[in-house]
From TrEMBL:
Chief localisation class: membrane
GO molecular function term, any single one: biotin transmembrane transporter activity
Organism: Neoroseomonas soli
UniProtKB keywords: Cell membrane, Membrane, Transmembrane, Transmembrane helix, Transport
Protein name, entry field: Biotin transporter
Length: 175
């Protein structure tokens, strides 16, 4: 009897986890639609969502949510910025940023407690998505343009979104 109860409990926990990950992927898809057109990479609320998914849900749930989101987009669902979807979107100029959401969610999940740790981890997580993003973008527009159009122009918005993620995290997880 204990084995059946344990298996049922484990099954419920697994279903809950993947249900939460699916909800997280929906939040990420919605955040992609809040977009300011820029070339070659649009400014969206996706990085804010990624930080919050990792910081509030933990690394495992954050990464699972991003992985589901990327799978949904790869299957052609219009979840990426501007309602885009499909494999072509994962091969275009923004692909590095999309893949950079995975390490960013994982790092954000390490935020833990303490305001200094949270601020540093969220900043590192946000910056971590730029490394593959700029590197991939450089293949399309060159390193200098990628650094300017794919990183420098985003720094003010990055600071604001990191501060917002920090404020939400502090409001929900004191200590």
């Amino acid at each position: 009897m204990t084995t059946n109860v344990t298996a049922a409990t484990r099954g419920m926990a697994t279903a809950r986890f993947w249900g939460m990950a699916l909800l997280g992927s929906a939040v990420l898809a919605a955040s992609a639609q809040v977009s300011m057109p820029m070339w070659p990479v649009p400014a969206t609320l996706q990085s804010l969502a990624v930080l919050l998914l990792g910081a509030l849900g933990g690394s495992r749930l954050g990464v699972a949510s991003v992985a589901l989101y990327l799978a949904e987009g790869a299957m052609g669902l219009p979840v990426f910025a501007g309602g885009m979807g499909g494999i072509a979107a994962l091969a275009g100029p923004t692909a590095g940023y999309l893949l950079g959401f995975l390490p960013a969610a994982w790092i954000a999940g390490l935020a833990g407690r303490g305001w200094m740790r949270q601020a540093l981890v969220l900043s590192a997580a946000h910056l971590a998505l730029f490394a593959p993003g700029v590197a991939w973008l450089a293949g399309f527009v060159g390193w200098e343009r990628a650094a300017m159009a794919g990183f420098m122009l985003f720094l003010p918005g990055t600071a604001v979104k990191t501060a917002l993620a920090f404020a939400v995290l502090r409001a929900t997880r004191r200590g």
